[in-house]
Specification:
The structure is a single chain. By secondary structure, the protein is mainly alpha-helical. It contains 21 helices and no strands. The longest helix has 29 residues, at 447-475. Residues 367-377 have a biased composition (Polar residues). Keywords: Membrane, Transmembrane, Transmembrane helix. InterPro entries: DUF305_CopM-like, Ferritin-like.
Length: 479
């Protein structure tokens, strides 16, 4: 399936305030042992990407020492928390958390339904999306269905219809995109719809699982989407370059794998015992909130449902474990289960990609172009022209950019006013950098180089416009 051309009306790149999906992009890093956090957003909302592109070799992650260091630190924290939870002090801590969250716990259904309703009103107002700003659609009727979904969540009689509407939107998005991409949004589709059906049920055996299904949906979505940081680290490079505060001073190639481990393991923590899952929820809530200001209102809209579910998990008083309770209660079950879950998700992610797209998939493959941002001349992040193996052609293209740049740059710098000379010289200089970057996007194949080239294009275009405005004002005598 191919994203329809109507989805290309906006390019959701990292330099824009408008966006969608989590996402997630640079994922929330705990400095993993101490659980100190940084802002997280789904990278797909802010950077161009190609769903069909071949993921990085799994061995790159398996041989990464920072990955294993992060896993070790998380295991220490989880095991220590589980040991503490078995002690009287652990139960006292849970009781204190119960007391603090009592007002929300007793009205938790009202809270979740209000947030679901508000979320669908918000994306109705955004317009042109299915369930998240990353899943674009030109169909106007979709927005009106979202408004009906919002109204339907406030009555038990109509909640199943709202659930059906959500599933319809999820299936339509699946038609326009594909299963591999839509698994990122499991929590926003299937899990929320299942909650509405269970919450409306008169069968108490069903109803008691309504919060649990939300928890599983968010946990699976977080663990699945976190694997982008290992499979496609280059998607995060421009975002990290533009917002270096995200890394807390860590080198990019240290931060990204550790952030991926943090996101994955916190998702895993949501499925564990009461204290582990509630502390994981608190940490995730801090991370998602930290992303609101640097990434803007769209990030808040896109993450609203997930944030609400995380709040519900933190407030959940339930102690009962319905799935594999013996393993989850055992302290030794933590490393065993985490290892099993990592194996399942990693083999599922790389294996499903191999099954759907083949071993030779990539930006230059001959299979259908699976992008959520349709390629265009301004932002060539999808399939480009056929690969060129004749390096003299690339060399000639590079030399042409230098010839085009050199004359106008030297001419511009001859102005007697040094300010004007600087501006007039820098404009062709920047245009030369853009032209060189476009040559790389046409002939190059290295993921990191191509990502950097796109970043150069985006930034240099902004600065060229700034310099042209300044020159226009100066020419008008307003400076």
């Amino acid at each position: 399936m191919t994203a329809q051309s109507g989805h290309a009306d906006q390019n959701f790149r990292h330099r824009h305030d408008t966006y969608w999906r989590l996402p997630m992009a640079v994922g929330g890093a705990l400095t993993v042992g101490a659980w100190s956090t940084t802002a997280q957003a789904h990278v797909k909302w802010f950077a161009p990407y190609i769903v069909e592109a071949s993921p990085a070799p799994l061995m790159d992650t398996i041989t990464n020492g920072w990955f294993w260091l992060a896993i070790g630190l998380v295991l220490v924290f989880f095991v220590a928390t589980r040991v503490f939870e078995t002690r009287p002090a652990g139960e006292a801590t849970l009781s204190a958390m119960d007391r603090a969250s009592d007002p929300l716990w007793f009205r938790l259904d009202d809270f979740i339904r209000a947030v679901i309703g508000a979320f669908f009103v918000a994306i109705f107002a955004v317009g042109g999306v299915y369930l998240t700003p990353d899943l674009q659609t030109p169909a106007e009727w979709v927005s009106w269905l979202q408004l009906l979904i919002a109204f339907g969540v406030f009555s038990k009689r109509t909640m199943p219809f709202s659930a059906a509407g959500i599933i319809i939107l999820w299936v339509l998005a699946l038609r326009d995109y594909d299963l591999f991409h839509l698994l990122d949004y499991l929590a926003l589709g299937v899990a929320v719809a299942a909650y509405l059906v269970l919450a409306a049920s008169s069968n108490e055996e069903w109803r008691k699982h309504r919060f649990e299904v939300l928890r599983w949906g968010v946990a699976i979505a977080l663990m699945w989407s976190s694997l982008e940081k290992f499979a496609y680290p280059e998607w995060f490079y421009p975002l990290v370059a533009e917002k270096p505060f995200l890394t807390f001073g860590m080198p990019r190639d240290v931060f990204i794998p550790m952030a991926g481990v943090a996101e994955f393991t916190m998702g895993f923590g949501l499925l564990w015992t009461p204290l582990v899952r509630r502390l994981s929820a608190v940490a995730l809530f801090i991370i998602f909130n930290a992303a609101v200001y640097p990434f803007g209102r769209i990030d808040l809209v896109g993450h609203a449902l997930i944030m609400a579910i995380i709040v519900a998990i933190a407030a959940d008083h339930t102690r009962e474990l319905h799935f594999l309770p013996a393993i989850r209660r055992a302290v030794a079950g933590v490393p065993v289960a985490l290892g099993a879950v990592i194996f399942i998700f990693v083999t599922g992610y790389w294996g499903l990609h191999l099954t759907l797209y083949g071993a030779d998939s990539g930006p230059r493959s001959q299979i259908t172009d699976m992008t959520t941002h349709t390629p265009n001349a301004e932002n060539p992040h999808g399939q480009t022209a056929e690969p060129f193996v004749n390096s003299p052609e690339a060399m000639a293209a590079f030399m042409a950019t230098m010839d085009t740049m050199h004359g106008p740059m030297m001419e511009g710098m001859q102005h007697p006013d040094p300010d004007i000379a600087f501006m007039q010289g820098m404009i062709p200089h920047h245009q030369g950098a853009i032209d060189m970057a476009e040559v790389v996007l046409e002939y190059g194949s290295d993921r990191e180089v191509r990502a950097l080239a796109q970043h150069v294009i985006d930034e240099q275009q902004i600065e060229i416009e700034q310099m042209r405005r300044w020159l226009a004002i100066r020419a008008g005598g307003q400076l």
